[in-house]
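@channel anyone free to eyeball this complex?
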Amino acid sequence: MEVKIFNSADEIASAASEMFVKIINDKNDAVLGLATGATPVPTYGKLIEAYNSGKVSFKNVRTFNLDEYCDLPRDDKNSYYTFMHDQLFDKVDVCEENVNFLDGNAADWQKESERYSQAIESVGGIDIQLLGIGTNGHIGFNEPADAFTGDSFKVTLTQSTINSNQKYFGDVPMPRYALTMGIGLIMKAKKILLIATGESKAEAVKGMIKGEVTPKLPASVLNEHKDAIIMLDKAAASLL
Ligand code: GLP
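replying in thread with the prediction:
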């Protein structure tokens, strides 16, 4: 695991977007694993800038998002599907048929999980997976648990995650369940880039980098990935 510390979230966004642009330009039909949350938004902003200045095209890129809430219509304003369209997809030339999400409303989540794994495999696997980290060390929606997960599955969100994410839903109670890529599936990505910014992530970051590899801090599994890069701002790195 390679750890890089930057002066600001803006510097991280530039470095992360340059990494993505290079991968897309090297491969043209690159397969991107994408993440939601506030952390990747500046990186998506820089990717839009790169697209607008002709440095990159998403025309042949395929995307797979990490997770999606259950019991929320796909085009609800708080769905991750809507989030990604607002923050990136609607502002670049990605083709809608190349955009992939887990269906949080699938009647049978096990079948949905199989479909997603097969879809990823059929395009040759994910070239780069972007990740954020929850304050409890979760990645995607893999919450602290007794064992690492495998393929995608339905998760009951923890109170800590609900406390962190309820703000986006205002007065409407947020969903209690989500479908998420499991740890096994995330770890199959050829390259992983985790970004953490702000003091609220410092404890989880310390556990991930200095602690043991344990499903109780899911992000710690990245120590076992052969090409994982962690980009931190000074606040997120403050307990290292
Ligand atoms: C959600 C997402 C995660 C994300 C986390 C942190 O729980 N499922 O993928 O990493 O939030 O979000 P933020 O970047 O807003 O702190």
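from a first look: The pocket of GLP is lined by residues 35-39, 66-67, 132-134, 140-141, 161, 165 (CB under 6 Å).
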